[in-house]
């Protein structure tokens, strides 16, 4: 068993969103992404993997296949292997999302 303090993973980079690996297993991965206002994750896909995104704090826009949805703390998003996702912090404060990638 492994236990990690998630607050320790809330680090930020003035230049770009910060990425912290929480757990990395052969068929799944958990990642923390930390965004300062205006920072974004470019559109990309995860072939053969489901992505489950959990908004821990902040607010922004999540785009799935170029369809934008407002997101905020407490929201959960599912991105299937055929979809492309991007996330942008549009709020005035920092935003943290946790992503779990799981093979099909």
Can you characterise this structure?
The protein is built from no helices and nine strands. Helices cover 0% and strands 60% of the residues. The chain has a single domain (16-103), classed as Jelly Rolls (Sandwich). The protein is globular and about 35 Å long. With 104 residues, it is mostly beta strands. The protein has a five-stranded antiparallel β-sheet, with no helix packed on it. Strands 3-8-5-6 form a four-stranded antiparallel β-sheet, with no helix packed on it. A hairpin with a 2-residue loop joins strand 5 (59-64) and strand 6 (67-72). InterPro entries: Cupin_2, GPI/OXD, RmlC-like_jellyroll, RmlC_Cupin_sf. Residues 34-100 form the Cupin type-2 domain. This is Quercetin dioxygenase-like cupin family protein. GO terms for molecular function: dioxygenase activity; metal ion binding. Keywords: Dioxygenase, Metal-binding, Oxidoreductase.
Secondary structure layout:
Elements: E1 18-25, E2 28-35, E3 40-45, E4 49-57, E5 59-64, E6 67-72, E7 76-79, E8 84-89, E9 95-103
Antiparallel strand pairs: 1-2, 2-9, 3-8, 4-7, 4-9, 5-6, 5-8
The fraction of residues in strands falls at over 45%
| Structural domain tally | 1
Q: Which structural class fits the helix and strand makeup?
A: mainly beta
CATH topology, which one? Jelly Rolls
Main pleated sheet: 5 strands, antiparallel
Q: What is the CATH class?
A: Mainly Beta
Q: Compute the gyration radius: what is it? A: 13 Å
Strand order in space, largest sheet: 1-2-9-4-7
Number of strands: 9
User: Which consecutive residue ranges, at least 5 long each, have pLDDT under 50?
Assistant: none
What is the mean pLDDT?
A: 97
End-to-end Cα distance, whole Å, is 24 Å
What CATH architecture would you give? Sandwich
Order of helices and strands: EEEEEEEEE
The helix content, as a percent range, equals under 10%
Number of H- or I-type helical stretches: 0
Q: CATH superfamily assignment?
A: Jelly Rolls
Keywords: Dioxygenase, Metal-binding, Oxidoreductase
GO molecular function: dioxygenase activity; metal ion binding
Protein name: Quercetin dioxygenase-like cupin family protein
Domain Cupin type-2: 34-100
């Amino acid at each position: 068993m492994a236990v990690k303090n998630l607050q320790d993973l809330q680090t930020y980079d003035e230049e770009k969103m910060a990425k912290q690996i929480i757990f990395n297993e052969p068929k799944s991965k958990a990642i923390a992404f930390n965004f300062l206002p205006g920072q974004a994750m470019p559109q990309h896909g995860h072939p053969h993997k489901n992505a489950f995104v959990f908004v821990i704090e902040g607010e922004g826009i999540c785009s799935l296949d170029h369809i934008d949805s407002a997101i905020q703390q407490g929201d959960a998003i599912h991105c299937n292997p055929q979809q492309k996702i991007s996330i942008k912090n549009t709020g005035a404060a920092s935003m943290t999302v946790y992503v779990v990638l799981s093979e099909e």
